[in-house]
Each structure stands twice: as structure tokens, then as C-alpha cells.
Amino acid sequence: MARAGSMCCWSMTTRKPSADEQALFREAMQGAKPIARKKRVSSSAVNTAPAVTPAKAGAQASADSAGGPMDPRFRGDDKRRGSPVAPAPKAKPPLDAGRIADLDKRTGERFKRGEMAIDAKIDLHGLTQAEAHDKLQGFLAKAAAGGKRCVLIVTGKGAGGWGVLRDAVPRWLNEPEMRRHLLAFSLAQPRHGGAGALYALLKRKREP
């Protein structure tokens, strides 16, 4: 009769167990309860969920706290983050009396010599600075809108060759509201008032 310790070897042999061996096996298995079918778990069903790495877990937590998947447009390392910033417009250089930068040489010389037709004229004599400033600004806007090209601004020479308006008008012409209408200005020729007047050349409507 085979010993109980030899039962583990039955499965390794190809011979049919003897009657004694079968009786011994039944005796050893008395009291054993079979496993219920519903409790049997297939080894293939274990650990079927995909592994979650710490990096993936952190990304998922961030997405969940934000209420959805992370939008690539808002990642810190994304160069496309934010809207592109338009470059600031290039500032125009200040105008000085007689400085002709945006004209061809022939037109610039004609302008400074007073050879261009005077399309409109304004006389600021007798006005306060505030009055003269407002009147000049309105005059230039109206002249530009009307397609005027060359205008004459009379400031007066002032007592002793020095005048408040004569000194102020060139500064005013560089203010944005007036500068945007102008290409150039220059001291007038004696026949048009000399040092007490200025020529102003206005932009055509198609010019920037």
C-alpha cells in the first residue's frame, strides 16, 4: 500500500492507480469541502485594470480639479499660451521748421521757397494761447478734410522780435491731434509774413 506522502506523485505518473491507492485517496479527502462555483476566480480576471503611474495619477488629479481634461493651450510650457501681442505703432519723428523728410527734394524745395499755392490761411493775431490752440487745431482738421495741401499760419513776430504764439505754434504742430495731418512746416518767405508766419504742408488723404 502506498503511503499518504506518495499521493502528490500520482499526477506525475501515467499508470492507473491501484484500488488501494484510490481507497487511500478517498480516505485522505474525507471532510474536504468543494469550492463553490460562484466563488471561483479566474486568474485572468485578476489585475486586469491598467497600471497607473504616479505621473499619470498627478495629471489626472489636476484635470479632475479643473473640471475636465487639461487644455494644451493653457499648459505652462506651451509657447502658444496667450494671444499674440501686436507691435506698438512706430512713433513719428518730431517736425522741425524746414525739415523735409517725407517729400522728394523738388517738392520740398518748392514748399520752403513759398512756390506752392496757398490753399488756406489762418491769422492768430490777438488771440490768447488757449484760443489760438483750439482755433489752429480746428483749422488744420477742416483743411485736411477738405483736401487742402499748403496752408499759411500767421503767428505775428511779437514785441522785440519775440512772440508767444510764434514760439508755441511749432510745439503745437507736433501734438498728435495736429501732427497726424502734417507732412512738414517751414518759416514763410518775406512776402508771406517772414518770421511771423509758417507754411504747413498737409497730407493727402491717401498718405499715412
TrEMBL record:
Signal peptide: none
Domain called Smr: residue spans: 122-203
UniProt biased composition (Basic and acidic residues): 72-81
Coiled coil: none
Domain of life according to the entry: Bacteria
Segments for region (Disordered): 31-99
Record field: compositional bias (Low complexity): 55-68
InterPro entries the record matches: Smr_dom (IPR002625), Smr_dom_sf (IPR036063)
Protein name, UniProt field: Smr protein/Muts2-like
Organism of this sequence: Hypericibacter terrae
Lineage per the UniProt record: Bacteria, Pseudomonadati, Pseudomonadota, Alphaproteobacteria, Rhodospirillales
